[in-house]
Structures are given as C-alpha cells and as structure tokens.
Design a protein that fits this description.
The complex is a heterodimer of chains A (328) and B (285). Chain A is mainly α. Chain A contains 13 helices and no strands. The chains are: A mainly alpha (328), B mainly alpha (285).
Chain lengths: 328, 285
C-alpha cells in the first residue's frame, strides 16, 4: 500500500511538472507582452528594460522556468491583462462558485447514473425511454442543452432562474450552500439550490451516461454471479442482496469512471458557466479568451488542470482501497 | 424482473432479424455518407452568401425563402448553417485522422518493438493521457491565437494518445501471433512485417474506434468555437454563431438555437454511424 501510494504521488508530481512546463512554454510563445501590458503601451524604453529586468525576463529560459515554478508554488500566477489584478486574487473570488457548481453537478450525475444503471439492469419498465433521453442529452453540445433549458424552464415555465448564483454572498466560505445555512438564511438557501439546478443538470448529463453505462454492465455481470444466487436462495431480501452483495462488488469500475468524469466536468464547466453567467472561474476564462488575456488563461488552465490531476490520483487510491485486489 | 430469474431471452439472430439489423446499420452508415456529401457540397446547396445580409432582420424559420429564418443583420441562417456544417464536419474528420496517424505510428511501433521502445513510448502516452486534454488545448489555442487552423493544432496535439494506447494493444496482440512470427523467421524485414502483416489487422479496430470518436470531436470543436477560439467574426461557425446570438435567446430563439441543433445532429449522426460501422464490421469478422 505504501509503495503504491508513493508511486502514485510521484506520478502526480511529474504530471504537475509537465503541465506547468507546457503552460510556461505556451506563455513564452504567446504574443502578449506582460511588461507592455503592465506598464501601458506608452512606457519609455528605459522603463520597459528595467521592468523586464525586475521581472527577470532578461534571464536565460531555464532560469525563468525555475522562477516560474517557484512563483507557482507561492501562488504567483502573474497579473491579468484584463482585470489588472493578480490572477491568484481573482481565483480566490471565482473558484468557490465553480467548485460548488461542479460538486453539485457531480452529485446529480451520480444520482442520474445510479437510477439509470439500476433501472436498466433490473429491467424496470420505461428504463429504455429514460436511457434514450440521457443518450440524446449526452450527444447534444452542452451550450444547446443550456439554452434549451433556459427557454423551457425560465421563459416558458418560469420555474427556474436563468443566470447567476442567486443571493449575494456574505461569507465566510464563498460556498453559498454553506454560507446561507451558516447565516440562517433559509430563503437564500432555497434560492441557491434553485440557481444551481439548471446549470448543474446541464453539466451532469454527459457524465451521468458514462458512469451509468459502466455501472449497468458491471451490475449485470454481478447479478448473474453464483454468489448472488446463493445469497438469494439462502433467503436474504432483495434489497439487502442488492446493496450488500451486488453494489459493493460492482462499484469499482464506476468509481474510476466517476473520477475521470469529475475531472472532465472541471473542463466542461467553462461553457456552462458562460451561458448561465455563473460568476466562476470558467466564466473568468471565457471572458479572458476574447481579449487574449494569457496570464489569466494560463492560470485557469493550471488550477483546473491541477484539480483534474489530483482528482484522478485520489480516485486511483480510493479504488485501491475499495478493491484490495488492485494493489497486489 | 425478479433479481435472480434467468436472463430473459435477448434479441435472437433469426434470419429476418439479422437482415433487419443489417438494413438498419446500412441506413446508419449511409447517414454518415449523406452528411459528408452535404458538407462537401455546402457551397452549392447554400441558397445565399452566408456573410452578406440578404433579407429582413430576424425573420423566423419558415419565412418566405428563408426556411431557417435570418439573423440579427439579415443573413440567411440556412446558408450559414450549411457552411458551418462544412467547417465542423471536415475539421472533426481531420482531427480524428491526425490522431489516428500519430497514434497509429506510435502505437504500431510500440506494439511491434516491445522492450524499452515500447516502455518509453507508452509511458509518454500515459503522461499525455493523464493531462487534462481539453484545458491544454484551450491554452494552446489561446497562446497561438484564435483561428480554425490553430484550433485544429491545439486539439490534435491532445487527441492522439488515446489512439496510441488502443492501437498499441491491438498491434501487440497481432505481433505475437504465429503468422507474424513465421514472417519474421522467414527473414522478412521489420518494416515489411509491420506493413504487410501487422497493419492490416489493426485497421478494422482503428477505423471503428475512430468513427465512434468523430462525435466527441464535433462537440469539443463546437465548444471551443463557442468560447471564441474558432474563426473570427463574420465567418459562419456553428458554436460561435450560437455564442454571438445568446442575447437574442429570449426574443428570437432560433438565431442561437439553429446552429446548436446542427451540432447536435452532426454529433448524433457521427455516433449512430459509428455504431453502424462497428456492427457491420463485427458481423464480417
């Protein structure tokens, strides 16, 4: 266990190093000039040179990369050309909203996946219809689902809001679901959930079908296993067999797929946040793209990419914990 | 629906069922061909110039002469959609082809060579696979500058590792078969063994996987275009056309929705056609 843990940790560090290497390389070939962006286009040549020296841009590339890495470890992601604030400070503002949305959507995806897998594996009537809806949803571009959802639930039915997170955030965590409860703001909590529902659902559909398919096929193979028949024939109730014998033995592949999908959701959230004007890091990225604000884009890529890599590492370890056979 | 009942009889391959399945799969594959033809002849099929205003502003679908309506400056939505389909479809095919080419070369070499060459190539592939591909491609396109060519580069860079893994496994399983060993023992050169004895066995799986992947690429490219990483303003592009018309969603819904539906149809056709190809080739083997 310790060796596999150490090995996984090593791989994770290498991946993070490569990711920052890629971002550094892209930063050095990107057309924007951080000095000009910082000083303004009318800065004198002497000012530009001294600023370049101060930022270390006259150093050899390898030294610059070292400085870049040291900066990253200290949370220095450069200054945004657009907001003129350190990118790291911008993240503190936007990241909680994104994490809240992705986690909510992930829970929704698990719920959809489990209901889909069980209804299909147990051949509940109507399950193929449910599957069809999920399948078409997973084939559609997320922005179409998002605008379709807005037209249906906001414009036509008037039951769900179409943009933003709802109540203003009064702290302390930045996660509205928690903050509204801490502040005893029950209507605010309800409004927060309402605002989460539509973007969460849009984000959840594609992962739900991927996780659900894996879970269904492992459920089906477990259901036909001998020990399940034994458990049933020795008189155990159906629910008990399903939970204790079938689910536990079928969940491994689904866990690993869930981790992969959680990682994907941190990339997919960008488009969804833009359509719903969700004040998160994805929307920050979407607004940075048209103005070629590369420090901001690089920062978002690094932070979301780091979350993705760490998620996958954690899932690998979780899977090993759930199924000890994998460690051997 | 009992938990332990013997599995209910599944679809049986009776002769009529088999023929029906075959017909359905041909139908699905022909959808793929039809879409390619539409994309190929978009310029001829489009009734109007996609960039020039040709009618009233924001005419709803079904208006006289504009079956898909017009957008905020009076451009024909049908023509823009057809041009957009052309760009999306061929871009997706190109990305998949490049992925197949790079992944195929690396995968076949790794699979046939085995030993340290295999180990090095596959470790490299695994590292690329473990990186967040979509985010890296966003960063690549942002660094190179928005545009269709750069988007294709950005996506292709992250798209090959999956193919390398898959093709390596397939090549490996073929490389250990007796006929390849016999060819080797007969003193045939390595390159010839790869080309004549391994590659033909890899192609069917590779083609099926690739065809099932086209839909994913269509969606990814549309997403990047939606974020403004595709072609610049007047050019007709499905994702970008939706993004630019978002403010009209609640008043003239068709302007953002029509290009989005075109993406949905492309991705559906790609997935169904891929399933059809898989089913047809599975029956052949």
């Amino acid at each position: 266990m310790i060796t596999s843990l150490a090995k996984r940790l090593g791989i994770t560090v290498v991946l993070l190093f490569i990711l920052s290497g890629i971002i550094f390389f892209l930063q050095s070939i990107s057309p924007g000039d951080p000095v000009k962006a910082y000083l303004g286009a009318n800065a004198s040549r002497a000012d530009v040179l001294s600023e370049r020296h101060r930022l270390g841009l006259d150093q050899p590339t390898i030294v610059q990369f070292g400085g870049f890495l040291v900066g990253l470890v200290h949370g220095d992601l450069g200054v945004s050309y657009r907001t003129h604030r350190p990118v790291f400070k911008d993240f503190a503002t936007y990241l909680p909203a994104t994490i809240e949305l992705v986690v909510f959507a992930f829970l929704l995806a698990i719920l959809l996946a489990v209901t889909f897998a069980f209804s299909a594996a147990l051949r509940v009537p109507g399950s193929s219809f449910y599957r069809g809806i999920l399948l078409v949803g997973a084939t559609a571009p997320p922005f179409l689902l998002a605008i379709g959802g807005i037209v249906l639930f906001y414009q036509q039915l008037g039951v769900l809001p179409a943009s933003g997170r709802g109540p203003d955030d009064r702290g302390p965590t930045g996660f509205l679901v928690i903050d509204t409860l801490v502040n005893g703001d029950i209507p605010g909590f309800g409004s927060t959930l309402q605002h989460l529902l539509l973007p969460g659902l849009v984000l959840a559909i594609a992962p739900a079908i991927s996780i659900g398919r894996i879970l269904r096929s492992s459920l089906e193979s477990t259901l036909s296993a001998d020990y399940v028949r034994t458990a049933r024939s020795k008189g155990l109730g159906r629910g008990r067999v399903l939970i204790k014998h079938v689910l536990r033995n079928s969940i491994g592949p689904a866990i690993s797929m869930s981790g992969l999908q959680l990682g994907f959701m941190f990339a997919g959230v960008v488009v969804v946040e833009q359509v719903f004007s969700w004040p998160g890091i994805g929307n920050y990225l979407a607004s940075s793209i048209p103005v070629s604000d590369f420090p901001a884009i690089a920062g978002v890529t690094l932070v979301l990419g780091t979350i993705y890599i760490i998620t996958n590492a954690v899932v690998d370890l979780l899977q090993a914990a759930a199924d000890p056979r994998l460690v051997a | 629906m009992s938990l332990i009942a013997p599995a209910p009889p599944r679809w049986r391959a009776t002769s009529t069922g088999f023929a029906a399945g075959l017909r359905l799969n041909f139908l699905l594959v022909s959808l793929l061909v039809l879409t390619t033809l539409i994309a190929l002849f978009a310029r001829i099929l489009a009734p109007h110039d996609p960039v020039q205003p040709v009618g009233g502003l924001n005419l709803p679908p079904g208006s006289d002469g504009f079956p898909f309506g017009t957008d905020a400056i009076g451009r024909d939505m049908l023509s823009r959609t057809l041009y957009g389909i052309q760009a999306s479809w061929f871009s997706a095919l190109l990305v998949v082809a490049v992925g197949l080419l790079i992944g195929g070369v690396i995968g076949v070499i790794a699979g046939v060579a085995s030993g340290w060459v295999d180990a090095v190539l596959m470790r490299m592939t695994d590292l690329f696979l473990a990186l967040p591909g979509v985010l890296v491609s966003i960063a690549i396109v942002a660094a190179l500058g928005a545009g269709l060519g750069n988007t294709l580069i950005g996506v292709s860079v992250v798209w090959w590792p999956y193919y390398a893994r898959m093709i390596r496994g397939e090549a490996r399983s073929i490389a250990v078969r007796p006929h390849v060993e016999a060819a080797r023992l007969a003193g045939i050169s390595r390159g010839r063994v790869i080309l004549r004895h391994v590659l033909p066995g890899v192609v069917p799986t590779a083609v099926v996987t690739a065809s099932l992947d086209v839909g994913n690429v269509v969606l990814l490219l549309a997403g990047l275009s939606f974020l403004g990483l595709g072609q610049s303003a007047p050019a007709p592009e499905l994702g970008a056309d939706t993004a630019r018309a978002l403010s009209q969603l609640l008043s003239e819904w068709w302007v953002p929705v029509v290009p989005g539906i075109a993406v949905l149809i492309l991705s559906l056709v790609a997935n169904l056609g891929g399933d059809g190809i898989r089913a047809l080739t599975a029956k052949r083997r």
